[in-house]
Amino acid sequence: MANCAHFAHQLALGLMTTSYRFIVLIFVVLLSTLYQFSSLSAADSSSSYGSLLAVQRNGNWIPRCNKMGSRFECSQNPKCKWCHSEALDDMCFSESKAWRLPHQVFFCDS
């Protein structure tokens, strides 16, 4: 009986550790997403010219993929990727940011 109790205790500790790791992963993803949005909104407020969905730098239009709210809108710009998540909302990211997202959390359209 003692072995059964010890096994149950070890199983509970393993489940708590797995849950804890998952919560930490989600927390890190949320923080990085918030950081990206806050840095982008700071850039938005300093730029009085430019459209809602793109900013002009050196004559080139750089899309603000995070401002695109639908998969269709995101897919219209080749520099943006629509990314799906079971844990978080589906979102549009720039190609470079989509590439850096954790593959355990997001799956991005090609």
TrEMBL record:
The chain crosses the membrane at residues 20-37. The keyword Transmembrane helix applies. Keywords: Membrane, Transmembrane, Transmembrane helix. This is Uncharacterized protein. It comes from Citrus clementina (Clementine).
